[in-house]
Amino acid sequence: MSIETAQREIVEEFGLFDDWMDRYQYLIDLGRKLPELDAADMVEDHLLAGCQSQVWLITEGDADRMVFRANSDAAIVSGLIALLLKVYSGRSAQEILDSEPHFVVEIGLSDHLSPTRANGLNAMLAEIRRQAQLALQAA
Amino acid sequence: MDIVESKVKDQLDVFALREQFPVLARRVHDEKPLVYFDNAATAQRPLKVIEAMDDFYRRYNANVHRGVHQLSVEASEQFELARDSVRRLLNADSVREVVFTRGTTEAVNLVAQAYLRPRLEEGDEILITHMEHHSNIVPWQMLCEQTGAVLKVAPINRQGELLVEELASMINERTKLIGMVHVSNALGTINPVEEVCRIAKKHDVPVLVDGAQATPHMAVDVQALGCDFYCISAHKMYGPTGIGALWARESILEDMPPWQGGGEMITRVSFEGTTYNDLPHKFEAGTPNISGAIGFGKAVEFLEETGYEGIVWQEERLLEYATERMQAIDGLEIIGTAKHKGPVVSFTLEGAHPNDIGTIVDHYGVAIRTGHHCAMPVMQFFDVPATARVSFAPYNIRNEIDIFLEALGKARDMLA
Ligand SMILES: Cc1ncc(COP(=O)(O)O)c(C=O)c1O
Asked: Given the CA of residue B373, which atom of ligand 1 is nearest to it?
């Protein structure tokens, strides 16, 4: 799957909901289904700054195939993480850097993109892109 | 869910009060009435404050203390009248004891750098409490790094009350200052400042009080308290942001060297040397926040007109009702259950992260605070990463608490 396809799928899924409660409920459920991280992953080195809840993000793989694992102690944020992983994990660093996360606006969660929001979607996106850049430099 | 208009007219005409706050008429998220329960972060502003600041810019904007022209004279007069309002608020002896700052944070930093730093030697101690806001922790930590002094922390109990006897036993000949919060923003606890000051006096240790959360809710008399420094922020007490004050005894301020240098704080400058201005101007370098000060003065007048009696009456009823209803919720834990409390309820809900609660109730129009409340050591003490917090002002009503509780119930269902 490409980043574009993944984004389109998400937009289609969210198109089924007509109010914010359903969208949030779906996010919360997605967050719940996110695989838990081991204690060894939930260390300060993996903690993202700029989030009000705790967000751990682990990067694996290389520039050809970047793999991200992440989770949070807050449910809505975990849901956002699930979406990000679906879009970005398993893609090449170049594809990540070449794409825009337009799905966030399209599914009505653009609130969460504002840099003044402390929930960290911005911080996560920035970290994913930074990791992609690092991987490209190392390649 | 609309806000029900039932006249509450015992001690305070709440609906007349609400009308003074235009923002309370706002609707958010698809026309839901705004329920503003984030007053401890910053309170809303009454028309009196908004209009006075508007009037300054429209009619007499000018720099202060410098001009011979009419506008400058008027601006200076209003600026100094505002200082006198703050003096009245704190029952200080003289306007010479009231230094305008950017807020509580800057007031604490001023005391740390201009008062305490020259007096500190390596191994000296600064004593604070476990429930301080970061603004009454970090300036002292920075000072400790600069001087080799040591920060000591007086303990609190599980209710979130200061252990005064323990604090007393920590005072020794190396203790050079006690810093304490009057009312805790994270827990609501009202601290026995007078008692601590009495104890400190016996050891000849000065006391700095962080009064940011006190002046919105209670009459403060710095002389009766017996403290040496009192720090406040206008925006917590219905005034503008970016302005606050440090009160300190005149004799102490006289002894303190200036902190920042520049215009306003001098009487004569030459390259051979500079003579500093008189109190309090020697601590107010640069063009001050003039409109802010004028708004601050009006906020004091607003409090005087409304009256602390009515404010306390309304806030106590809100706190009591919210506490009672929230205690009854399964899995909800109130963090901060001191006997003497301001109108703040900090809480955790089993299985629900405060951030999720805050996000969901926001969609019901309810503004609450979630996070560590700039008091991370408090969170560490109670072993929680964060709490959700509702904090009330006298313009809040019971029905808003019902709306919040309903939204909280929804959040809980969604997160279950
Ligand atoms: C108890 C307490 N102290 C200090 C502060 C800092 O005030 P300011 O940010 O206005 O300087 C606050 C407000 O956040 C507070 O609640």
From this structure: 14
B179 CA to centre of ligand 1 in angstroms? 14
* In the predicted structure, residue B5 carries a pLDDT above the cut 60: no
Portions of chain B given CATH number 3.90.1150.10: 14-33+307-415
| H-helix or E-strand spanning residue B291 | helix B290-306
Q: How far apart are CA A56 and CA A43, in angstroms?
A: 8
Superfamily of domain B14-33+307-415: Aspartate Aminotransferase, domain 1 (3.90.1150.10)
Token representation of residue B378 = 């408090």
Q: Do A53 and B385 touch (CB under 8 A)?
A: yes
Residue A43's SS3 state is coil
Ligand 1: centre distance to CA B216 (Å): 12
> What is the CATH T-level fold of the domain B50-305, as seen in this structure?
Aspartate Aminotransferase; domain 2 (3.40.640)
Q: Among A24, A30, A31, A78, which residue's Cα sits nearest to residue A51?
A: A78
A66: CATH = 3.90.1010.10
B160-185 confidence digits (pLDDT tens): 999 999 999 999 999 999 999 999 99
DSSP designation for B162: B
B404: left (phi over 0), alpha (psi -120 to 50) or beta: alpha
- What pLDDT is recorded for position B383? 95
- Find the CB nearest B353 among A20, A21, A73: A73
What H or E segment, with its residue span, contains residue B267?
strand B266-270
Query: DSSP secondary structure string, B202-231?
Result: HTT--EEEE-TTTTTTS---HHHHT-SEEE
Residues of chain B with CATH 3.40.640.10: 50-305
Q: How far apart are CA B55 and CA B69, in angstroms?
A: 18
Give residue A48's domain range. Answer: 3-138
Q: Considering the entire predicted model, what is its pTM?
A: 0.92
Residues β-bridged to residue B58: none
* Packing angle, helices B290-306 and B70-90, rounded to 10: 40
Query: Are B353 and A53 a contacting pair at CB < 8 A?
Result: yes
Domain count, chain A: 1
From the list A10, A30, A51, A96, the catalytic residue is A51
Q: Of the ranges A15-24, A108-117, B86-95, B103-112, which one carries the lowest mean pLDDT score?
A: A108-117
Does residue B409 belong to the interface with chain A, where contact is any CB pair within 8 Å? no
Query: Mapping DSSP to helix (H, G, I), strand (E, B) and coil, where does residue B405 land?
Result: helix
Which alpha helices (H) appear in chain A, and where do they start and end? 3-14, 20-33, 75-88, 93-98, 103-106, 121-138
| The two structure tokens encoding residue B17 | 């009060």
Residue A72 CA to residue B355 CA, distance in Å, equals: 11
* CA-based max dimension of chain B: 72
B245's enclosing H/E stretch is: strand B244-248
